[in-house]
Amino acid sequence: MPRRHVALALLTAVLWGVNFLAIHASLAQFPPFLLVALRFAVIAVPTVLLVPRPQVPWRWLLLYGLGFGTLQFLFLYLGMSLGFPTGLSSLVLQASAPFTVVLGAVLLRERIGVHAGLGVAVAATGLALVGLSYGADAAVAPFLLVLLGALGWAFGNLASRQARAERPLHLVLWMSIVPPLPMLAMSLVFEGPARISDALATSFTTEALPAWAGLAYTVLLGTLLGSGIWVWLMARHPAGTVAPFSMLVPVVGILTAWLTLGERPGPGELLGGALVIGGVLWASRAGRMPRVGASPTSDVRRGRTPDREPALVTAEAES
């Protein structure tokens, strides 16, 4: 890739890595289910008014929104709100890649080669090590919730692959119409009207500015700008050239959480993280492991071919 394109790929990794700090800031003001509803409602309204609907079957659009948009962020935000470290969250979401490979084999009957299978096994070992290391000093439930978020992302990857959208960014945007109503309903049931009203009433204060700034960052920089750059790069370069840059997301996430929040992963968590990243990169060399990114469906994660799909991340991420 030209240096300018490499710089854009690095910028996207930084945008997505810092996105976890933005989520952390927003969760200080808003309960997790309400925050997911707000995040996607902000995108959904202008999308319906201004962006043409992608010409894909409704079932794949809805399933993509359910997996990538609803389940991923429901569990990610809930896990983070219960105390799972911000930096480690950016790492654990990388589990979406091996999850996608395994689900593709089980549900779509895709073949897992020896190369990819070894990478998945190494990544799974790393995740287990992260979970054991974290669970030795804290409740393991938040880790499992974030891991479920990665599983939701993986289901979204399969739906997005089946959709085969001609304009992947439109699919990413239209996916945002799915989460707001179910997440608002869950917020009303589990978080309650009193907690919702209190969060909204106190949000118009100077103390709540970081929360609004975090939400704006997540929508404008993490989702729209980051995904837009990623789709643009995927349309111009092979997925195997662009996708590995997404492995920098947890590096940025862990580093920025350490510098700003004082989070310091233990040796076991760092070793597990290295195994996760190494396993995912190794498996990706086989050309069959989807990558993180938001849209990193490759063709967002056209830059994508029907048999290869980089994981989207709106990591949100996107994470």
Count of DSSP-assigned helices: 13
The biggest beta sheet reads:
none
Main structural class:
mainly alpha
Tally of structural domains: 1
| Fraction of residues in helix | 55-70%
- What would you call the shape? globular
Gyration radius over CA: 18 Å
pLDDT average, as an integer? 86
Q: Tell me the distance between the termini.
A: 25 Å
Pick out the low-confidence regions: 288-319
Q: Give me the count of strands.
A: 0
Tell me the strand percentage band: under 5%
Encode the helix/strand succession as letters. Answer: HHHHHHHHHHHHH
Pfam family, one: EamA
Subcellular location: Membrane
Protein name: EamA family transporter
Keywords: Membrane, Transmembrane, Transmembrane helix
Describe the structure in your own words.
This protein has 319 residues and is an all-alpha fold. The protein has one domain. Helix content is 70%, strand content 0%. It contains 13 helices and no strands. The two termini are 25 Å apart. The C terminus is likely disordered.
Distinctive features:
mainly alpha; globular; disordered C terminus; 319 residues; 13 helices; single chain; EamA_dom
Write the layout of secondary structure elements.
Elements: H1 3-27, H2 32-50, H3 58-81, H4 86-92, H5 96-107, H6 114-135, H7 141-163, H8 168-174, H9 180-201, H10 209-234, H11 239-242, H12 248-261, H13 267-284
Helix pairs in contact: 1-4, 1-10, 1-12, 2-3, 2-9, 3-7, 4-12, 5-6, 5-7, 6-13, 8-10
